Automatic annotation (TrEMBL):
Name of this protein: Glycogen debranching enzyme
All residue ranges annotated as the Putative glycogen debranching enzyme N-terminal domain in the record: 10-192
GO annotation (BP), single: carbohydrate metabolic process
Residue ranges constituting the Mannosylglycerate hydrolase MGH1-like glycoside hydrolase domain according to the UniProt record: 363-591
InterPro entries reported in the protein's UniProt record: 6-hairpin_glycosidase_sf, 6hp_glycosidase-like_sf, GDE_N_bis, MGH1-like_GH
Organism lineage: Bacteria, Bacillati, Actinomycetota, Actinomycetes, Micromonosporales
Length: 687
């Protein structure tokens, strides 16, 4: 990611990342620029006045979709007594509009040459991420009397950026310019529209960019206001909770992504900048986190993932019948099959999680028609679990990529190359099975049994699923238990050898319900013990393991989303105090990030660093980090749908004070939940 002096605005999968002056000067390896549909449409956007670059006095990211930059001529190293000031107002909403205002504060008139250098490398986001800009097509720049047209073509794959101005400009292949005269105290304005267009293979028009006029900005503002108004209201004596909740709601609104085929319906994109698209696992887990607050996202997610469910065997895309996709991309490398994300199915957990989300969604909303609509997809997903995922034949879910060139090596949520290891630090052979996925499979079968019995009219299938789940639970508790550590192994290799490291994955086992009750206390103890719990949250890998690194991507960092599901699992098994401890640590950390939890942060002990250490390349905002405070609220208040009603069983961290969550939507209509935390160790529990 770029440094902390960057400004980011976004709307769905269209986003702009710039310097704090508003300028964009991207390199092939930096995710700065105007991006949409996994393509960089602007890589250069530099404003000068009389040939001089501008210095930022301040900037304001007013809403997630707009920003304002206050600038003066001159270098930041000099004392500035500027006679000119420049305001850049920028909005994104499908495409991009920038309004320039220049004010003359001098008592003399001035003549100014205003220039914007503009260009695009049309880099595919994967090329930026991999730091390899190897374009095989042709770029062009055409200066027309009333516009600048930047473009890229490769066969019938085409991307264009068209720049126009409300005040006539002089256009050339490298940008455009104005010559203006300003009297004392006079100001000058122009509005610059940047329109993007995309043409896919076969000539299909993927999307025509929308010009962001004032009416569109008002529509975006109205949409955000409606989004916040529909969500439950949160009041808290502890300021961090209410402010973090609001920040999460706004970021969730910003990350709403409307796939081309959905006609305006939205689901959560995974995260800025690398993952502004549809992800099976990420979208499902985010929907689970936010169900009490934004249930409509789940319906859209379930429908689109069901519509794109695997139907055939395709080694390039790691596709099987019944498998739920991992990732969908729209850029050049996907269009020409230089990588498989069109869509790619290399996820081992999205398929059982699809069933889990459908059941949880019905419990909250009572949307029986959707349960019936997706019966075939659910049955296909469960068939994938049994027939295609069990590569070893021992009743567990395994993964091994068939696309050995561009497929994902690790297909669990910890998908970095070195995230799955034995205790001695060596990496296991393939296929691999990780523990949390077995829990998801158990949960999916138990939940599908309820759906089959209550809605599909198939009690025999329900009985079968419950038998299979019980057998899986018994096998799992036998085969995965690490005797000398008293926890569950991270994974198994194909010989049955345990990957016997202590990891955060064991918390997901509590959430799924696969852990025998007589072992749950040991798991809870590990999760809040000093090796895993840093004081801010649970580390992905325990301190003391060979591969432990407090800033290792999946080998010691703290992932807020991971912690939210761990806390939910602890509550499921009755460990409310432990869940509250984790919630308190994560919410404390959120205050250091202005309420916006990043993808991950350092796993250093809290007493050592005194503040959470940023992970240098973490996505922010990221959907399942954005959803974390919402799931923690649910967990702290003990909100659970039960027999058509909402049960509330609060247990707040010490010192949290009173929390109110008002107008919680569901099949019960809208209800309120209240809780008061203990202020010290001697007070009675919250009620």
């Amino acid at each position: 990611m770029p440094g902390t002096n960057t400004v980011r605005i976004l709307d769905g999968n269209t986003f702009v990342v710039s310097e704090d002056t508003g300028d964009i000067e991207a390199t092939p390896s930096e995710p700065t620029g105007l991006f949409s549909l996994d393509t960089r449409f602007l890589s250069k956007w530099v404003l000068t006045v009389n040939g001089e670059r501008l210095n930022a006095l301040s900037y304001d990211d007013l809403q997630y979709y707009e920003a304002r930059f206050f600038l003066v001529p001159g270098m930041a190293t000099h004392y500035i007594d500027a006679k000119l000031s420049i305001i850049r107002e920028r909005a994104v909403g499908g495409s991009f509009r920038e309004t320039l205002t220049i004010l003359n504060h001098d008592e003399k008139a001035v003549d100014l040459e205003i220039r914007m250098d503009a260009g695009s490398d049309f880099a595919d986001l994967f090329q930026v991420k991999d730091e390899i800009l190897n374009k095989k097509g042709e770029t062009y720049a055409e200066a027309e009397p009333d516009r600048l047209r930047l473009g890229y073509r490769r066969g019938n794959f085409r991307r264009e950026t068209v720049v126009t101005s409300s005040i006539p400009a002089r256009y050339d292949q490298n940008g455009f310019a104005y010559t203006i005269h300003l009297e004392p105290n006079e100001q000058w304005n122009t509005a610059i529209d940047v329109q993007t267009s995309a043409l896919g293979p076969g000539g299909r028009d993927l999307r025509m960019g929308v010009r962001v006029h004032a009416t569109e900005r008002l529509a975006l503002q109205h949409d955000l206001e409606q989004w916040i108004a529909r969500a439950p209201k949160v009041n808290s004596e502890h300021g961090r909770v209410a402010s973090t909740y609001r920040r999460s709601l706004i970021d969730l609104a910003a990350l709403r992504f409307s796939p081309i085929s959905l006609g305006g319906q939205t689901l959560p994109a995974a995260g800025l900048p690398w993952f502004m698209t549809m992800f099976g696992r990420d979208s499902i887990l985010t929907c689970l986190q936010v169900l009490p607050f934004a249930p409509d996202l789940s319906k859209t997610t379930l429908r689109i993932l069901g519509a794109l469910q695997g139907t055939r065997f395709d080694d390039f895309r790691d596709e099987d019948p019944g498998r739920i996709l991992h990732e969908m991309r729209y850029g050049e490398t996907a269009a020409f099959e230089e990588q498989p994300h069109s869509p790619y199915y290399g996820s081992v957990d999205a398929t059982p999680l699809f069933v889990v989300l459908l059941d949880e969604y019905e419990k909250w909303t009572g949307d029986v028609p959707l349960v019936k609509e997706l019966e075939r997809e659910c049955r296909a997903a469960l068939k994938w679990v049994d027939d295609y995922a069990d590569m070893v034949g021992n009743g567990y879910i395994w993964y091994e990529r068939r696309n050995t060139d561009t497929g994902l090596e690790n297909q669990c949520w910890k998908d970095s190359w070195d995230s799955i290891s034995y205790r001695d630090g060596t990496l296991p052979p393939f296929p691999r099975a990780t523990c949390e996925v077995q829990g998801y499979a158990y949960d999916a079968k138990m939940r599908a049994a309820r759906l089959a019995r209550e809605f599909w009219g198939d009690p025999a299938y329900a009985d079968q699923l419950e038998r299979e789940a019980a057998e899986l639970k018994q096998r799992f508790n036998r085969d995965w238990w690490v005797e000398d550590g008293e926890y569950f192994a991270l994974g198994l290799d194909p010989t049955g050898r345990q990957m016997d490291v202590l990891s955060s994955n064991i918390g997901h086992l509590l959430w799924s319900g696969i852990v025998d009750h007589d072992r749950a206390a040991k798991i809870a103890g590990h999760l809040i013990g000093p090796r895993l719990f840093s004081g801010w949250g649970v580390r992905t890998l325990a301190e003391g393991e060979v591969r432990y690194n407090p800033i290792g991507y999946h080998n010691g960092t703290i992932w807020p989303f991971d912690n939210s599901f761990i806390a939910w699992g602890l509550r499921r098994y009755g460990f409310a105090e432990e869940a509250a401890t984790i919630a308190s640590g994560i919410l404390d950390a959120a205050t250091y990030f202005d309420g916006r939890l990043p993808e991950a942060f350092g796993g250093y002990p809290r007493e050592l660093t005194k503040f959470p250490v940023e992970y240098p390349t973490a996505c922010s905002p990221q959907a399942w980090s954005t959803g974390t405070p919402l799931l923690l609220l649910r967990t702290m208040l003990g909100l659970e749908p039960h027999e058509g009603h909402l049960a509330v069983d609060p247990r707040l961290p010490i010192g949290m004070g009173r929390i109110e969550v008002l107008d919680i939507p569901g099949r019960w209509g809208r209800v309120d939940a209240f809780a008061r935390g203990r202020m010290d160790l001697h007070e009675p529990a919250a009620s």
